[in-house]
Amino acid sequence: MMLDLLRQILGPWYLQIKFLHVLFVAVWIASTVVAYTYYLVPVFKAWRRNPHDQEIIALRNWTMERFDQGIIFEHVAFPIIILTGPLMYVLGGWTTATNWLLLKIILVCLVAIPIEIVDYHLSHFRGNKRRLREAGDAAGYERSIQQHWMFFLITSPPVMVFAVLIVFLAITKPF
């Protein structure tokens, strides 16, 4: 009953919803690529080579705080993706009997959502570097920097693979 009403009201807007979904997927994927690749990685490599260099530590901290601010684009895009994806599923009459879609849903649920939850925490909540600095929590600040960097080291390879795979599945619908 409720799904029929939803299909009746929003069904004519399927392509516009799909456009929003694809647009925000692009924002989600691309919003951190440049900052991560050309700012965070070089600064963290320099810091690992010279862990006691105060200038490099200051640059690392500045870069990480800017990253926490810039990641807001990704963190606004992801909830929109999570809303429009299931909406398209319902409006388009899709089923999980479609193997490519089932795999895509599994990847989103088992890889993307858990990674994003941790990323939100590290960037905006208890791991927010600017707030820790302003509170004078030097130990918490350093711990948050270390945790965020470890998070990047662990999650970047799977994100690169699975984000591309999710987009590939959506476009090619291979099986």
Oligomer: single chain
Mean pLDDT: 95
Spatial gap, N to C terminus: 31 Å
Strand segment count: 0
Strand content: under 5%
- The Cα radius of gyration reads 19 Å
Output the helix-strand order: HHHHHHHH
Tertiary shape = elongated
Uncertain residue ranges: none
| Helix content, binned percent | over 70%
What can you see in these coordinates?
- There is one protein chain.
- The protein is mainly α and 175 residues long.
- The protein folds into two domains: 1-31 and 71-94; 33-70 and 98-175, no CATH class.
- It is built from eight helices and no strands.
- It has helices spanning 2-10, 14-30, 33-49, 54-70, 72-91, 99-124, 129-134, 138-172.
- Helix 2 (14-30) packs antiparallel against helix 5, helix 3 runs antiparallel to helix 4 and helix 6 (99-124) packs antiparallel against helix 8 (138-172).
- It starts with a helix and ends with a helix.
- The model has no long low-confidence stretch (mean pLDDT 95).
What is the gist of this entry?
The chain is mostly helical and 175 residues long. Helix content is 84%, strand content 0%.
How would you summarize the topology of this molecule?
Blueprint: H1 2-10, H2 14-30, H3 33-49, H4 54-70, H5 72-91, H6 99-124, H7 129-134, H8 138-172
